[in-house]
User: Fold these one by one.
Assistant:
Number 1:
Amino acid sequence: RVRLAAAIEPMCHREPEYFDLQDEVRARLLGLFGLSREVAPVLIAGSGTSAVEAMILAGVPAGKKLLVVNNGVYGDRIARMAATHGIPFEEVKFSWDTVADPEAVAKKAKGFAAVAAIHHETTTGLLNPIGEIAKVAHDAGARILVDSVSGLAGDAIDVAQMDLVAGTAGKCLQGLPGVSFVFAKRDALRDAPKRSVYLDLGELASKQDARNTPFTPVVPIMNAFREALLEAQEEGLEKRLARYRETAAFLRAGYERMGLQYWLPHRRLSNTLTTLRLPKGRTYPQVHDALKKEGFVIYAGQGALEKE
Ligand SMILES: *Cc1c(COP(=O)(O)O)cnc(C)c1O
């Protein structure tokens, strides 16, 4: 259904038909995650990283500091975004196999306007305690900015507790890649500085609220996203999380029977990703190519994990 929905007749993105589609996608996003109108769902034409970058640019008021919780490639990426745009930041780092410790974040968070954290660190499959991190950020008077690009609709997150949450159509929401989005508390957008022309959340939100768009959206991918959101609603969010959880349990039982070793203790893993060590005496390309012949695609570890 999702792939067929991308094969629509051409639709002009300046016509009411497109704005009906845009309104529907925004409303369905709010509905799926049980959010009120206090939250603006802001759509962006771009991969998940564009949503994360737009969130970081909007979420740190001018002259204020960002604290980045970093325990993987995606935490690192947020630090690089802040550095690239000249946003003052510091990091609280944990090793890649360690869950971010809310107490350590609490100790450091005073004086920061915002804390950025990754819900599901896709580098390793590690799930961070995002609710607790949000709480200590708020207790310290900071906003919480969450990269949940690979978390939303795969693992539980209370989006309403967060100030800004970045997500994408093409992961656990089961749409196609090319549309991403940020859930933004309208309050948090009020003092959003202008740091980018394209990735300007405030501008995108006000144009979309007025049934408009500043730039050309990816119309066929948006239509596919609408279909994916319909499917998600039909399945139900809780049932989707359960399906991923049960699928992971099934796969992990099989990995254990085969004697494969986890890279991370499996209780730290998300519902959607399992990191395993290479079997003894096998290289990654051997394992990858043999599985691909059977119709399975696996993914190498990132950074230093590539050869483990
Ligand atoms: C996939 C992912 C992203 C963004 O990836 P894109 O390739 O830009 O879609 C960002 N953060 C996390 C945690 C991810 O898993």
Number 2:
Amino acid sequence: MEAPLQQLHNPLWENQGIALWVKREDLLHPAISGNKWRKLKYNLEEARRQQKSTLLTFGGAYSNHIAAVAAAGQEFGFRTTGIIRGEKHLPLNPTLSFAASVGMALHYISREAYRQKSDLLYLTQLAEQFGNPYLIPEGGTNSLAVKGCTEIVADIPIDYDYICCACGTGGTIAGIIAGLEGNKQVLGFPALKGGEFLKEEITQLIDRYNGQHYDNWQLITDYHFGGYAKVKPELLEFMREFQQQHNMPLEPIYTGKMFYGLIDMIQKGYFPQGSRLVAIHTGGLQGNAGFRERLGVEV
Ligand SMILES: *Cc1c(COP(=O)(O)O)cnc(C)c1O
């Protein structure tokens, strides 16, 4: 499995002497997408070490993580249970229909109950109810996920100044920061509002992983486009142009916003002349089928 580096060419940055590469984590695995594969890798090893036969995790109805865990269970020989936020809707959307097709048992809970997803008591009850499974938190983020994501940077064979990554729970960027051990500049682009909270989360994830504190990173909070699942026409338009120019698909929740933000920052002169940038394509393209269905738009 390989995630090649692809250089993007455009006078917009090349006229400033800026070079831009994309690390194509989306190509790591056909179904266990991008960062979700990195986050699962050591969790799967740990589940096996604990001789667990079932993986149980949490997510929304369009979650990339749910799709990835379902696929990983099939490929690596675990049963999987997905605790899905909200009510069941038939027919299943493309994400859940994929998850079910590779064997995931779907269990729906109310939005109120879902808020307890990190409570110890609730997790103990779930473990009893579902046969003592290996529990993976929402989005797959824990210390083993951070460890897996440190390997994203170990796997970049060129020299560069900045690395850019979309953020949800912050697990991926925590691994990137820890893997760089204080080197380079790391820019995170949150998909949600509320960057201050996320900053604290990331700091804690790194601390729990290796006890270190780093200052070479920041969150760019201007490009969430109204929040997680809000899709603005200008973002879709940008994604279409990007696909045409670079022949690289994006999705509107994470990578679309990050590239929009990154290119906007280049345009506004944020990066010094001669900067070398690496952007992480974290994958998530499975979600596009759901967008097409829900919004009736081409993404
Ligand atoms: C889950 C996901 C992210 C966010 O990763 P976190 O580790 O939760 O910050 C970014 N991009 C894509 C495509 C994702 O699916």
Number 3:
Amino acid sequence: MSDYSINTKCVQSGYTPENGGPRQIPIIQSTTFKYDTSEDMGRLFDLEASGYFYTRLQNPTNDMVAAKIADMEGGTAGMLTSSGQAANFFALFNICEAGSHIVASSTIYGGTFNLISVTMAKMGIEATFVSPDATEEELHAAFKDNTRAMFGETIANPALTVLDIEKFARVAHAHGVPLIVDNTFPTPVNCRPIEWGADIVTHSTTKYMDGHGAAVGGAIVDSGRFDWMAHADKYPGLCTPDDSYHGIVYAEKFGNGAAFITKATSQLMRDFGSIQAPQNAFYLNLGLESLHVRMPRHVENAMAVAEFLQSHPAVEYVNYSGLPGNKYYEVARKYMPNGGCGVVSFELKGGRKAAETFMKHLKLAAIETHVADARTCCLNPATSTHRQMNDEQLRQAGVPAGLVRMSCGLEDKKDLIADLAQALDAI
Ligand SMILES: *Cc1c(COP(=O)(O)O)cnc(C)c1O
């Protein structure tokens, strides 16, 4: 990890050109790599030397960008994946197997909730979901002898709950289990979960990191702090010989700093192939170069929009942890003193009908399921993603019919507020 500030890391980490080399990260658009002798290549297959042989497992462009993200998060190793879904699956499946159990926050992203509760359940991996607001005692009670990972999101998408990272880490560590935190919404510019005790950090780089809605991607960063060998009985995949690599013991051979990512690359990437295209890694890096400039503007716009909505008579309530009085205001200030992200949600008085009219009249804010890029967008779940539910079901699910999620982009806040004002007037 370098000593530079996060601002400098966004721009410079991960790649240092050699004399006369390209200033920008080169896109290594090659599936395969050439060696002079079979012995040279054999050493790679034995994990005796590091290097590249096939882009299904590893590519130099991806590794430069992953090294930047690892440096930004303050971790020891990182990898890119084809999507945020792949990142969370790999992070969990790297230490879980049939018969394992996961404790996860209940307010996580819907895709991750399905991954854990449906797809991983089919693989024989059980889960217990806990409220992010649960007391330490309640969190302890969710653990079982076969619990292998604890999971949460710094700021949950779309619930916007804020994770008390220190509390979750304390409980996970008391059970000899690592805490995995999905840090997609704040990005390492606004929060670095490893500094608060998280062991593994994941990202959907599709969101703010890319920041322009250009490329789907994911990332995993290891803090290097979790002592796998001290819990060897729980993590045989890291602490006992891997038969598919001539009996290598990852935790012994690569140490706490590199074992997790090496295993995820050489086993999971080899077998599942969820690699990010080098071209996408290049786009991702362009986004990272301005992330520290963009995040403060996303926060500024969201704060202005939240304050405007809060004072508007057509709005029932506003959910944004930057607003004093929000349930998560204090915990958000602790972990994200410079603000969290650009996503705000609010409920319109007048339910479904009001939301329909409001959405129809928006001019600047586009209707999209996406969040967290340069262009402002809005979503009314009742008339789109959740349209199969009736009003009563929606209320029970915590997404009332009049709820709107707004992802504040990088436009001028005066124009965003004017757009909202005219759409609210139309109701
Ligand atoms: C979008 C998102 C994901 C999934 O990422 P994809 O890149 O869409 O696969 C995971 N976690 C969070 C918090 C997200 O917002």
